[in-house]
Amino acid sequence: MASTSSSNNSSLPSASSKHGDVDINMVALSPQPPQSPPDGSLELPAELVVAGWRKFWSRRENRHYYFNKGSGQSIWDLAQIYTPPSPSDPLGISAGTVHSPGTNPARPPFPPAEKRRPSGEPVPGQSPVKKIMLLPLSGYWDLETPSNVCIMERGPCVQLLPPHQEVEQLRARLVAKLRHQYQELCHQREGIEAPKESFNRWLLERKVKDRGNEPLLPSQCLTDISMSMYREIMNDIPVRLTKPKYSSDARKQLAKYAEAAKKMIESRNATKESRQIVKWNVEETFQWLRTQFGASCEAYLERLAHLKQQCGPHLTETAKSSVENICSKIYSLSCDYAAKVQQKHWEVLKEHGIEEATEAPPPAPQRRVTCYPLQLYVPCPRLPKVDRVIEGETATLKFNGETVKVSVLYFQKLVIAFYVFYHAATAHKCERFM
Fold it and tell me: Is 172 within 8 Å of 215 (Cβ atoms)?
């Protein structure tokens, strides 16, 4: 048995014969990998085996590495040379992709393949900020997931204009101003605070139906009134209700709703029948509160639900026109601000000698291609530089007297998104992004 084992070991090729002789005693004392074929070919996908890749064990680092016997390249991470089929493709339409050392893939992987460090080379020291900037994004965001969606090839977009810092700065100011005006309208006309995150949901709901050229502000919708904003404002009339924790909180909320309903129906142009119904239910509620001082939290909530059911339709009918005016006013202001942004955009482009296109671009050929980012027809001028200062885990961006602070990881996400979608060169990609 011993002679057979020695003869088999002498006949098998190994990574040690490739990279130098190794003492047998050292091999016995060093940690051993899991039992597998010497070249690890059975553990690799067939595409990698055909490309010449083999799997070996590093006794120095106590982990596996991958060696290409054709090119002599060695790496630690298999993900840098092989893209497995996507889990979202159960039918296997998209096959795994192998990046050979001698070929240039359409989209280079990021970060670059990690090279094996020689034994005598020390680990280069890096500051904490640089380590954060060099962290891979696989644990945070995966922006390089290949698409398996096919679309008909499309020509460049004429309506959208290339982004510019001055235009984006104006757009941000106008959006902040519109958000503040929405808060003031809710407070002045209905006596309530604007519903939380209601403005953001309004932007999303409007952009689904918007047909304008403004990428953020709604400017060309079929209707002026947003049902999303309308329902959220109505839900907080006459007061915003929250889930109470204690019976005392439920009692205060019931009294507050009854008082607000009575005040609203008396100050608005409501019908005589609505006034009588609301006032009668409010008086009945106050009388119940005087007799049921020590009621449970569930009893107060049931009474509140009954009062809201009786008075809600009349309050909604009374406040309908006012809430609709709020929605229409916000949309009208949004259209005005979108026109200002468009005007400013063309002023900046004309300063760089870029005029509006007089001829439409040629139609794209009718063929199916893999989904790709939108291409703009209007050329982009040379953009001014944005100063950045990185301190610890915070990146400070300065432009035209304004300062914005974001986390380093979020800033890194923006850089990689620019690198992926605009196919920027790997070198100096951060400078190009700025």
Answer: no
Would the pTM count as exceeding 0.85? no
Structural element, H or E, at residue 98: strand 97-98
Cα separation, 51 vs 66, in Å, equals: 12
Element (H or E) spanning 83, and its range? strand 82-83
Alpha-carbon gap, residue 253 to 243, rounded angstroms: 9
Quick: pLDDT tens for 26-43: 444 444 444 545 566 667
Contacts of the segment 276-280: beta carbons below 8 A, 24+ positions apart? 277/310, 277/311, 277/314, 278/311, 278/314, 278/315
d(CA 72, CA 68): 5
Q: Which two tokens stand for residue 253?
A: 């909320």
Which string of DSSP letters, residue by residue, matches 198-210?
A: HHHHHHHHHHHH-
Helix, strand, coil in percent for the chain, rounding step 5:
45, 10, 45
Q: Are 207 and 217 in contact (CB under 8 A)?
A: no
In 186-246, alpha helices (H): 198-209, 227-235
**CB–CB of 430/419 below 8 Å?**
no
- Number of residues assigned to the chain: 434
What are the helix (H) ranges across 52-135? 128-133
- The tens digit of pLDDT for each residue in 367-414 reads 999 888 788 889 989 888 889 898 988 999 999 888 989 998 888 888
Sign of CA dihedral 215, 220, 222, 223: positive
